[in-house]
């Protein structure tokens, strides 16, 4: 049955939207951190930061159902849901960030953020990290090297190495990264390109999940500001309490970006994204250029987003993410004492990267092993994926409902997978 569905999919959808796994998982239901396939088998979702509260969370289902049966319209009529949500959202952000706009995807949020940065600086030069992913639009994909060699990068953009505490040997990662940003600014200005800003995911998700020590982005942000650029924090992955330490990834570093973009977990699966910025930055743009997004900020997505904020607070999910994330790290580090192939385990809250290597001293990335581990984990009911420039970092990012019992599931599965594959 799975083969028939896969063939049907290929026939109508073609090669885009590539599926996970050699034998795709045919899902029919989700609840909490678990997913069920068509044969009734239960899986532990270790990958999903969209259903961040848990799949089909009742608070979101209820809010969406109530709002969808009352009113749904676009943002050019007055309605209160968008205002109620904005008031709530802004309480989670630094006071300087007090203008919000809404869209439906992370790509649209980053696309607008780049337009704003270019408009207010009069520049065109954007800095991103070497394996960054920021979106699907023409503009965002032109600064998304993670898309691979087929995707042209904007000639005005500069790629800098991400601050990888495992591979970069330096006593001061903050100064190291700031130097690279500074060099990139000099380089683009020598080429006659005016600097617009740094677009950065503070957890460096597609660069291999690099939480690094809290605070180390401060120097790079200072460099950007001194050069007249805009700091855009892409919070699509680290945002909404994921890192435990802070509600937003950038807040771990004690920086105040000029623009913050958000998406994925914002509506727990209902498509909604947002951009929040300093008043003077966003107003300079909005006063001159109209922006309209038919579905952006619609009452149903705002109701879902509000239920997400409420639930993060009422269920104490940020504190939970910090505590259970630390427990998960400890358990995985325990495994690393028995499996040479685990080169590094790092994380912030429930965002963990586990790096597989063929040589612990030379830090040789083992992509083939990582891909085999994914398949073995799947056989044991654990769904996840890989990230990083070498594709050898297991990305563990479960719904925040993740519990102690799940740690045992993951570690046993990983222990068995590595035993099967490496001994
Ligand atoms: N930024 C980051 C860091 C992302 O991970 C993604 C999606 N993977 C996006 C932006 C784009 O979001 P969307 O797919 O909702 O357009």
TrEMBL record:
Listed A to Z, the keywords are: Aminotransferase, Pyridoxal phosphate, Transferase
Q: Does the keyword Ribonucleoprotein apply?
A: no
Top-level taxon: Bacteria
InterPro entries in the cross-refs: Aminotrans_3, Aminotrans_3_PPA_site, PyrdxlP-dep_Trfase, PyrdxlP-dep_Trfase_major, PyrdxlP-dep_Trfase_small
Q: Could you give a GO molecular-function term held by this entry?
A: transaminase activity
Q: Which family does it belong to?
A: Belongs to the class-III pyridoxal-phosphate-dependent aminotransferase family.
Q: Any idea what this protein is called?
A: Aminotransferase class III
- Organism of origin is Rhodococcus rhodnii LMG 5362
Upper lineage is: Bacteria, Bacillati, Actinomycetota, Actinomycetes, Mycobacteriales
